[in-house]
Amino acid sequence: MTRLLEVSDLDVVYLGLTDEGNVRACADINFTLERGEILGIAGESASGKSTLLTAVTRLQQAPAVTPKGSVRFYDAGDSEGVDLIAADEKALRRYRWSDISIVMQSAMACLNPVTRLEAQFADALRAHDRSLNRAQIRQRTADLLAMVGIAPQAMGKFAHELSGGMRQRALIALALACDPDLIVMDEPTTAVDVVMQRQILNQILRLQHELGFAVLFVTHDLSLLLEMADRIAIMYGGRIVEIGQARQIADDPQHPYTRGLRNAFPSLTEPRRERHGIPRSPPDLRKLPAGCAFEPRCDESVAACAAVRPELLDIGPCLAACHVRAAERGVAPLPTARPATEVIA
Amino acid sequence: MTRTTGSGPVLSADQLSIIFDGKDAAGHAVEVRACNKVSLDLHAGEIVALVGESGSGKTTLARAFARIFAPDEGEIRFHGERITGRPKRSFYRHVQLVYQDPFASLNSLKTIRHILGRTIRIHKPELTRSEVTAQILQLLEMVALTPAEDYIDRFPSSLSGGQRQRISIARALAVEPDVILADEPTSMLDVSIRLDVLNLLDAIRRERGVTILYITHDIASARYVSDRMCVMYSGELVESGPTEEVVSNPRHPYTQLLLASAPDPSRTKPAEPGDTPDVDEPADPSQAISGCRFNPRCPAVMDRCTAEKPPLFTVGEQQVKCWLYDGVEAPTRARSTDEEHRP
Ligand SMILES: Nc1ncnc2c1ncn2[C@@H]1O[C@H](COP(=O)(O)OP(=O)(O)OP(=O)(O)O)[C@@H](O)[C@H]1O
Ligand SMILES: Nc1ncnc2c1ncn2[C@@H]1O[C@H](COP(=O)(O)OP(=O)(O)OP(=O)(O)O)[C@@H](O)[C@H]1O
Ligand SMILES: [Mg+2]
Ligand SMILES: [Mg+2]
Questions:
Q1: In terms of C-beta density within 10 A (0-12 exposed, 13-18 middle, 19 or more buried), how is residue A5 classed?
Q2: Which of B161, B267, B279 is opposite residue A227, by nearest beta carbon?
Q3: For B180, left (φ over 0), alpha (ψ -120 to 50), or beta?
Q4: How many beta-carbon contacts under 8 Å exist across A and B?
């Protein structure tokens, strides 16, 4: 496999009116994505998933800033890669929609309401290849729509004339227009029904299989990711707390939050048994504790957890940020309850 | 999970239709049969799940049960008694709706004491102030907002989504209802706290014998909490039966499609992408379709399906509205021995 994307030590902050008002919606994000890989990112509401995607694609808008970190994108045959965080707007435009395309939750917000589908496909296709003539564009648009199961007649329609499922699929077709290396998807199926959701996911998997693009897929629905991702990252309170193979997350989750989340999805096939959610609510990013953000809800926590923030470490089956797990596996000893700087010799 | 079987139904719909004025795709005025000849009995202490795609008529059916809508055809019966005209005020007390959005359904300017106290006083005007307080505390304990004293003077705005949904449920419980109609009570909540609301519904029916209609898109959660499952499609009830039967042995092609589509955490990514057939969007109730309303999407469609509307067939313990089961009396599945020997 060859590397496509490498996110290192990335922080994203929403600037408030004062320093206390700042929200660090993503902190110390590290992950890589290989060509042709599907990486799922799951987490509860406000855990920073959308913030991460907008930062990675450099679509974030004020008051969001990226004070630290890099997002290195490796174009085909480019061993050095380019840091999208440091790149200027002109360089970025080259990547956006030609190497990286984006599918967001609200298709309505992404599709232009006042132009017909055809015109939007024409824009995207021309951005990629200026030499295309009208007939070629029509043909290419029809082909792209066919890939997602939409009849060519639909290209004459406006977004609001399509049903929710069709809009979402049209957006996926549009994302494919420039034969991207990476498609970034933020809850692309949350607004559609289960049957349509299944069809869209199958289409994504089929197209991915044929065309070989990589996918970064964000959703709160872990059960969906288990079925479609190669690897899964779990976010909690703006940080990745576990990242591993989908199989491992499904069968042998490590972080107590991942275990809780995994257990929160009743199955359709396993025997029925009583299950419990995770007690208490997700954290407020403005008031994160000094230690592990999950500590107040965790039933495995020890004194160190409230005081020292755990690093994302390789603990064997996966990477996880949990003192208890790391100690259990002999990767790192439990830290003393007080932060290291305060330890008196 | 326990299964309680009562005598007669507490609340039932008999051949109920709710018809709205709507427009078809071309803009012509048409009848929208959001519920079309639906018959459904809710028994004491049972949890019935109502599942189906968006627009299939689930909310409309719940509102008809709550008599927010009067039936255009058929009737609603409460403890066997037909409700004609405007129901008595006590009816509304016995049948409570819990809405999807815990943020919109509570007045955030009032304290929990005020919100619950008001409902209790309307129900029991004779209670003294301290008796009302005692009841509020008891309700908060019932919905596991403990210590109750810490919650009673808070505002809904200071609660999480799951906690607010518990307040909505506590408010519904305040009037000691026979039936709670819970319309997607967990869909706005974070995954990690949904189960607790479902467990709460289960506790309410076990401890208070309340009958619950649980409406959802999430079939796995419906399986988790319900005794019986009803599947709606385009305004019609197409299948119903004991939850485990419906889930493990869906009869209607639509139920089969729905179950095959639902995400299941016990499945993982296949080596080769699946080749599920593409089916169209669900039929809008404003669309005119002759015969079975599912026929344009049905993989098992026969000539008969486009000509004639199927009646309900009984297959084992399930009822299915599908021509595939005409004359087919599938054998009832063998009961487990321990169930057989129960007195
Ligand atoms: N424009 C903004 N200004 C200030 N804070 C913001 C802004 N956008 C998002 N946030 C905050 O950043 C945090 C992360 O938000 P984000 O939208 O990334 O979460 P998410 O994981 O995508 O959640 P969801 O599942 O609800 O979409 C939240 O606390 C949110 O309130
Ligand atoms: N007041 C109304 N006037 C006209 N049509 C209506 C009205 N209420 C509902 N409908 C229509 O009736 C049908 C059923 O709607 P209903 O809200 O009952 O569906 P649902 O199964 O609850 O869907 P969802 O899962 O999206 O909540 C829809 O086609 C809807 O557009
Ligand atoms: Mg988001
Ligand atoms: Mg509804």
A1: buried
A2: B267
A3: beta
A4: 137
pLDDT (average), residues A122-131: 85
Q: How is the beta sheet containing B95-98 ordered, strand by strand?
A: B95-98, B179-183, B211-216, B47-51, B228-233, B236-242, B318-320, B313-315
Beta strand B318-320 with B313-315: parallel, antiparallel or unpaired? antiparallel
CB A237 near ligand 1, within 6 Å? no
- Give the model's confidence band at A107: pLDDT under 50 very low, under 70 low, under 90 confident, else very high: low
User: CA-to-CA distance for A155 and A234, rounded, in angstroms?
Assistant: 38
CA distance B169 to chain A (A): 18
Distance B304 CA to ligand 4 centre (A): 31
The 10s digit of each residue's pLDDT in A219-231 is 999 999 999 999 9
Alpha helices per DSSP H over chain B: 58-65, 89-94, 112-123, 129-142, 148-151, 161-174, 191-208, 219-225, 243-248, 253-261, 303-307, 337-340
Cα A304 to Cα A297: distance, rounded to the nearest angstrom: 15
Radius of gyration of chain A (CA): 22
Distances (CA, A) of A54 to A60, A103, B193: 5, 11, 27
Residue closest by Cα to atom 27 of ligand 1: A45
In angstroms, the separation between the Cα of residue A165 and the nearest Cα of chain B is 7
> At B75, is the secondary structure helix, strand, or coil?
strand
Token digits for B8? 């007669």
User: Which atom of ligand 1 is the closest one to the Cα of A23?
Assistant: 5
Q: Mean pLDDT score of chain B, rounded to an integer?
A: 87
**Which residue among A196, A224, A269 sits closest to B266, beta carbon to beta carbon?**
A269
In the structure, what pLDDT confidence band is assigned to residue A265 with cuts at 50, 70 and 90? very high
- The pLDDT of B317-340, averaged and rounded, is 69
Q: Residue for token digits 């929200």? A: A23
Query: B342 pLDDT exceeds 80?
Result: no
What is the CA(A50)–ligand 1 centre distance, in A?
7
Q: How far does B69 lie from chain A, in Å, by closest CA? A: 26
| Contacts with B195 from chain A: Cβ below 8 Å | 264, 266, 275-277
| B192-204 per-position pLDDT tens digit | 888 988 999 999 9
Count of CB atoms situated within 10 Å of the CB of B213: 27
Domains assigned to chain A: 1-87+182-266+282-289 (3.40.50.300), 100-179 (no CATH)
Query: Which of B191, B244, B262 lies nearest to residue A264, judging by beta carbons?
Result: B191
Preferred mutation among A281, A284, A294 to probe B, highest tally of B CBs within 10 A: A281
Output the CA A320–ligand 1 centroid distance in Å. 23
Q: ipTM for the complex?
A: 0.85
Q: Identity (one letter) of the amino acid at A86?
A: A
Q: Which two tokens stand for residue B93?
A: 């007390």
- Residue B274 confidence class, pLDDT cut points 50, 70, 90: low
Quote the tokens at residue A296: 């107040």
Say yes or no: CB of residue A12 within 6 Å of ligand 1.
no
- Report the share of chain A in percent with pLDDT over 70: 94
Q: What is the mean pLDDT of residues B149-172?
A: 88
